[in-house]
Each structure stands twice: as structure tokens, then as C-alpha cells.
Amino acid sequence: MDMTELRLVPGTPSAVLSALTGVLDGSGTPFAPVPADRAAAERVRQAVAPDEPLETDDCAVVLGTSGSSGEPKGVLLSKAALVASASATHDRLGGPGQWLLPMHPYFVGGLQILTRSVLAGLSPVVAADHPSFSAAAGVMTAARRYTAMVPTQLSRYLDTEVEALRSFDAIVIGGAAMPLELKQRAAAAGVTAIPAYGMTETGSGCVYAGEPLQGTRLALDDGRILISGPTLFSGYRLRPELTAEVFQDGWFRTQDRGRLVDGRLQVIGRLDDVVISGGVNVTLPAVQARLLEHEGVGDAVVLGVPDAEWGTRVVAFVVGRTGQAGREELRDFVAETLPRTWAPRDVVQLDALPMLASGKVDRQLLLERLR
């Protein structure tokens, strides 16, 4: 097969591990893992365009992004980027070890668990092959043991699998911001949970607990987080104009806002998390954080929705913890510490937030509920 061609492989742990081992040792060809779900698979195919020649000759894997806040894109990752990310992660955590895979390997977090496993020369343990997380952890044999998961998984396992969580030397938390309450719960339980910041374009997490991994550099441009280093992707599949837009002078310009506090990166939110509603700038993460402080709110997401009267209408999607807190109660609660003009205009009560397979909230599906 011509190395400029891209092959699709099933997004199962065994198939991805086999394909990944091939590109890492030089015997395989570039591939794109595809989930089993038909709709998700079709989005991946559109993003990775398997019938078109690859733009670069150093591509190892093409991953389709989840499209949680926009259209999916194909992300070109080289062998060098994958290896740099995996090696820097092991260096930060204290050395190579055995990894447990509790997530899908067609997302970068799961893919990199497999990359680290190949480099460590240790077989990964697939959580789905065992009746429980504890059972999966129980079959691990290496002296050093690691896993990675999204905050939602950690929260659930803290309720049911604490002993298993404690058995890991480190648990990398990515895919979404790790709430302060969750950090405190993990610490109180004796669980070593390390929040990581990164994305598909950075080869998975590249900043651990606010500090960049070896080789990664950070900068801020009017609050926008810029990243440079060996783990960065090569570009977007067949999107040279978008690639040129996000790569400038060797820096990847993310869509996230942040700040440096005592040399550590604090991620504040996405650039589009500040909306103008009725002429007032509203910081959506601040409203969301305040709602989560309400005793009756178990989970919440706050979005800006186009509105003819307000320009953008602030809408809160809320999962009740002990019954449903009403719209006016929640608006008043927000207004106790934030400007009244920031209080959500609408409150949508849900039994649970819709989640993508990546562990991120499906914002597009929430917006569709309002149409």
C-alpha cells in the first residue's frame, strides 16, 4: 500500500493497538480508527476523507474530532508527535508503567494510552473486557500502574471503586475541566488524580496540573492560550486554510482562554464562552460554576443561544440533585454573587446531560432541543 494512502480500521482496542504498533515500528501504514456507531462512523469518514491522498508523508494517524462545539475535523498526527507525547507523559509520572484503558481508543486520550503501552512494552488492560473497573485493575501486574479518564468517570468511580482507584500510581484526568469539588473528593479519598489540559491537536494532554510537559511551551495572546512543542499535530485534513489560521510562527492558537498564576496555567474557558446578551458581556463558565454551588443542582451547562431580542440568550441546562430548583430561584441564586444581568434567561431541566463518547457534553444536541 502507498504510504500516502489512509486506511480505516475498526475503533476497537485490539484493532487500534495492532494498527498503532505497525506505524510505531515502521511496518504499518497510516490509519484512521472508526467507531462502531453508524452516525459517528459517518462523521469520522467525512472528517478523515479516506479516499483522498494524505497531505503529509509523516502522518501516522488521522483522528476525527468529536465536534462537541462545531463541525468535526480530521487531525493529522505524526509518529514523532505520538511518541513525544507518550514519552513526556511517562517522564512526568515517574517512568513507564502498565496502563488500563477505560475509554474508546478512537479518541486521542484512549489512543495515547495504547501508544504509552507500546513504548513501555507492557500490554494494556482493557476495562471493557472485565465485569467491573475493580476487576480490570485487579489483573494488572506491573510495578507502576496508570490509567486516564474523564471527570465524569472519576466521579462515578469515587462512589463505587475507591479501592481500585487508590491502586494506581497516577490517574490522568482529561477531556473536560476537572471541578474543584471533584479534586477535593479525590484527594480526600487518597486517589492520585492529575488534571491534564490538551486536545487532539496537542497529541492529548500536554499540561499536567498546570505545568507543561517536557518540550511543551505556553504563551498567552490577550488571554488566548498558545502552545508550541513536539506533540503538536501536523494540520487539519484537507483544510490548509484552517491549518494556516491556527498555526502562526510555530505556535498553535487554541480556542481556549487562560492565565498564568504562580507559573501554572489556569484554563478559564473557551474564547466563545463570553457572550454579549442585551449589550452585556456574560462569562458563561462563571454562571455555570455558580449554579453548581446550589444544593439542588447536580450538574449544569450554560450556553449562549442566538436570540432576536437579546442578541444572545443565556440558557442553563440543569440536572437536579434533590428535586428541581425553579427558574427564578436559580436566577436569584446566580445574582447573589454575579451581576443580575448574567442570570440565565431560561432554565431547562434534564434528567442527565447528553454526553459524547469522548466524555464531553454534547452541546450541539442541547442546542437542538431549543429549536
Automatic annotation (TrEMBL):
Q: Which PROSITE patterns match?
A: AMP_BINDING
Q: Which residues form the AMP-dependent synthetase/ligase domain?
A: 41-214
Q: Which Pfam families match?
A: AMP-binding (PF00501), AMP-binding_C (PF13193)
Q: Where is the AMP-binding enzyme C-terminal domain?
A: 288-360
Read off the InterPro entries from this record: AMP-bd_C (IPR025110), AMP-bd_C_sf (IPR045851), AMP-binding_CS (IPR020845), AMP-dep_synth/lig_dom (IPR000873), ANL_N_sf (IPR042099), ATP-dep_AMP-bd_enzyme (IPR050237)
Its name, as the record gives it, is O-succinylbenzoate--CoA ligase
The UniProt keywords, alphabetically, are: Ligase
* Molecular functions (GO terms): ligase activity
Per the UniProt record, the source organism is Kribbella alba
